[in-house]
Write a structure and sequence with these properties.
The structure holds two protein chains of two kinds. Chain A is an all-alpha fold. Chain A has 15 helices and no strands. The N terminus of chain A is likely disordered. In chain B, α1 packs across α2, α4 runs parallel beside α9 and α4 runs antiparallel to α11. Classes of the chains: A mainly alpha, B mainly alpha.
């Protein structure tokens, strides 16, 4: 991070608290929080593997457990719906838009933070303001634009519009990382005759790798989770992303296939959750970094 | 880069080696993107609000007619009320519970990092997919909450979570708070960790009670971060779309329509792009107010640190 957080990890005043008091004041509320925050996932997972007979029969089977879990819902999803296609679309769109945004953001952040061209401060502020513009007020005009340039109902529409919220975020985050790299490194390289391009690729970028990872996985998650643009710009089933596909194609009529819906939700969440579990610290630093700057 | 003829090469070189030239060049991709897909649509949206554009038909300028129409539209005013109510109540709850969770996590606990990691999960999982889980939890017949409450004998028949206006409002709010707590808690935790323990210890030695230590030491030092975190939180709650769209689509009888969902409803399925854009534009003043609030929060932070 730009400014290394001072983590004060010694026990402090906590050691004077009695155990009973601590159980009551700390562990009990914490357990409640964790229960509430995780219960929907548990419910999602248990529904995804419940046979249809047990799904709504709360009299004979405890709803909290499952006897003889089944993979039927997941099989149905993978082999009888367009789910694998949506998964693939989401992946393509997320990877491409993340890559585009990172590329543009690295240059922009370096220019604002290090080249300090005339108006750099104002540009930095504008980037921050751009981050605050919500997709819910942009989707109508964007749909008009997307239609006019003829990319309506294609993956390209999403790949080109997702950077509107990714670039401001990544630039803002990377500016913080670049700020933490000492000027002296660049100065000595300049004295040794390095060009700006060499400085950027050989000195600044290698040092900013943690920042690039943070921005990259965060941008990937944001585009994986995006909904309103995908809902508006995509109409044919084969181009839909996971959130839109699950909601618009798996919800049919009055009888909801909860098993299939929940396994769709579970499978669609897994990629980001796996990514998250590998990079927890990067996530936390990018989330708090965007706020702290 | 296309090959540049010789005499201009030196100009090109000078351009690239100057700060402003190279800065401009480096800014170009990001700026082009944001101008085309952010600034231009923002302007276009404002313009569409003054037209009667429909899907597939360019609009005519009709001045303030859309806004005049909205002024007399009870559904619009209901959505404004819902949005404000939803934003205020959900933000206050998120702040209170988030701060509480942050304070709990800021203690000396075993497996602190593990707790922090799983607490962030609701925020990582795509909102639409977790909202589907809530949809199932709030099912009118097979809700697990109703089942447990009935089992305990608290209620006699299932709660109609999403079918009754006030129940629906509270249910979507609960889902929103559930999703927002992790962001607030983890961000505030990061802020709490920058506060040296020694300040708290010094206050304790001077005889301050835990409440006084929180009120007079922790809270003032945390205020700037709270301002920024809550601005983001308010902004995202105010413009929320996904949760409502999944859980209720604005129903029952428009009782949960937010401005964002109403604008979608009118513009895309309804085809009235102009009217939808006008509703979206009507959100801007509220957003500006939130941003200004954040700006003054940041100012105060600078003043506290004695930077200026």
């Amino acid at each position: 991070m730009a400014d290394q957080t001072v983590t004060d990890d010694h026990e402090g005043l906590d050691q004077f608290e009695s155990r009973g008091r601590k159980i009551f004041l700390v562990w009990l509320p914490l357990a409640c929080f964790i229960f509430v925050l995780l219960f929907p996932f548990y419910w999602m997972a248990i529904t995804a593997v419940k046979p249809n007979a047990q799904l709504t029969d709360y009299q004979n089977h405890s709803p909290f457990w499952v006897v003889g879990p089944t993979l039927d819902h997941i099989k149905y999803l993978l082999f009888e719906t367009s789910y694998p296609g949506w998964l693939w679309n989401t992946l393509i769109v997320a990877v491409c838009s993340t890559f585009l945004s990172l590329l543009a953001s690295v240059f922009a952040a370096y220019a604002i933070e290090r080249l300090r061209f005339r108006g750099a401060r104002v540009t930095g502020l504008l980037i921050f303001l751009a981050y605050l513009v919500p997709p819910s007020i942009l989707f109508i005009p964007l749909s008009v634009i997307v239609f006019q340039i003829g990319i309506f109902d294609s993956k390209l529409a999403l790949i080109l519009t997702y950077p509107t919220f990714l670039i401001p975020f990544c630039t803002w985050l990377l500016m913080g990382y670049f700020r933490s790299i000492p000027y002296e490194l660049e100065e000595s390289a300049l004295v040794d005759g390095a060009t700006r391009w060499q400085i950027l690729t050989k000195i600044v970028l290698p040092l900013a790798v943690p920042g690039l990872i943070s921005a990259g996985i965060f941008a990937f998650t944001l585009s994986w989770n995006e909904f309103i643009y995908a809902l508006t710009f995509i109409s044919s089933s084969e181009n839909k992303t996971i959130p839109v596909g699950v909601l618009t194609e798996l919800v049919r009529g009055d009888i909801y296939e909860w098993g299939a819906l929940m396994s769709g939700a579970l499978l669609g969440s897994l990629p980001v959750v796996i990514l998250y579990s590998f990079f927890v610290d990067y996530y936390v630093s990018s989330m708090t970094g965007a706020v702290k700057e | 880069m296309p090959p540049v003829p010789e005499p201009r090469a030196s100009f090109w070189r000078r351009f690239v080696e100057s700060r402003n030239g190279l800065g401009l060049l480096f800014m170009l991709p990001a700026a082009a993107f944001l101008l085309c897909f952010l600034t231009y649509p923002l302007g276009l949206g404002v313009w569409l609000g003054f037209t009667d554009a429909r899907i597939g038909r360019a609009g005519q300028w009709i001045g303030l007619e859309n806004y005049a129409w909205l002024m007399d539209d009870p559904v619009f005013w209901l959505s404004v009320f819902n949005t404000l109510f939803y934003t205020i109540v959900a933000s206050v709850l998120k702040f209170g519970l988030g701060l509480w969770l942050a304070l709990l996590l800021n203690r000396h606990l075993p497996c602190k990092n593990f707790f922090r990691a799983i607490i962030l999960l609701p925020w990582v999982v795509p909102t639409v997919l977790s909202a589907l889980a809530f949809w199932w939890i709030f099912d009118s017949q097979f809700s697990i909450i109703s089942w447990v409450l009935m089992k305990w004998g608290i209620i006699s028949q299932p709660i109609n979570f999403l079918g009754d206006p006030w129940n629906a409002r509270l249910s979507v709010m609960a889902a929103n708070v559930w999703r927002g707590i992790p962001f607030v808690a983890i961000s505030l935790l990061a802020g709490l960790q920058t506060i040296p323990q020694s300040l708290n210890e010094a206050a304790a030695i001077d005889g301050a009670t835990p409440w006084q230590r929180f009120r007079r030491v922790t809270l003032p030092l945390l205020t700037p971060i709270i301002a920024v975190v809550m601005t983001f939180s308010v902004l995202f709650t105010f413009t929320d779309f996904q949760l409502i769209y999944v859980l209720t689509r604005g129903g029952p009888v428009n009782a949960t329509h937010l401005m964002a969902t109403l604008s979608f409803q009118r513009a895309i399925p309804g085809g009235q792009l102009g009217e939808g854009a006008a509703i979206a534009v009507a959100m801007i003043p509220f957003l500006l107010a939130a941003i200004l609030f954040s700006f003054f929060g940041l100012q105060r932070r600078k003043w506290q640190q004695g930077a200026d």
